[in-house]
Design a protein that fits this description.
The protein is an alpha/beta fold. The protein has helices spanning 44-52, 80-93, 106-117, 138-145, 163-166, and strands spanning 5-11, 14-21, 28-32, 56-60, 99-104, 122-128.
């Protein structure tokens, strides 16, 4: 079993708990968990497999989760951009310029935000249990909950297959 190096890093006024495994010179995989789930939700077997394949792995607790600071959301509301800044602060706290970002649910949304707004920080992005940023699945969910056909959760646009050949 691997042993990680625990470290707290700062993102503004918030202190975030992190854990790093592997050699600091190896390519970095940053694991970003979903809403209200601690970093230890990432299976140790996954972390060990990544480290054994020549990568360092960093995982962390979001604000309001696990060993990281709690924030009174009523008096200090925060946004996805703030959580993405926390994620960048985790990279900075470990001296990492860019990483392979692996996120699930909220973590995938944070990864998408970073890929769009701080692309130099993201080598690759693996987004699990997510949907594209900017998509509002609410109407499809409302139809499904009312027992009606949901239709498409993510709208798609049909293109004329011959259009590309005509250019």
């Amino acid at each position: 079993m691997l042993t990680g190096e625990e470290k707290f890093v700062r993102s503004g006024h918030v202190r975030l708990w992190t854990e790093r495994f592997g050699h600091p010179d190896d390519p970095t995989v940053l694991l970003v968990m979903g809403t209200a789930t601690q970093a230890i939700g990432w299976p140790d077997e996954l972390v060990e497999a990544l480290v054994n394949s020549g990568r360092q792995v960093i995982r962390f607790d979001h604000r309001d989760t696990g060993r990281s600071d709690s924030v009174d959301f009523t008096t200090h509301p925060y946004t996805l951009a703030d959580m993405a800044a926390d994620t960048a602060a985790v990279l900075d706290g470990h001296g990492v310029t860019a990483a392979h970002i692996v996120g699930t649910s909220l973590g995938a949304a944070i990864g998408q935000w970073l890929a769009v707004h701080q692309a130099v920080r993201v080598r690759t992005l693996t987004a699990m249990a997510s949907s594209p940023m900017g998509n509002d699945p609410g109407p499809a969910w409302a139809r499904a909950m009312a027992g009606q056909p949901a239709g498409l959760l993510v709208p798609h646009h049909r293109r004329d297959p011959g259009a590309a050949r005509q250019r």
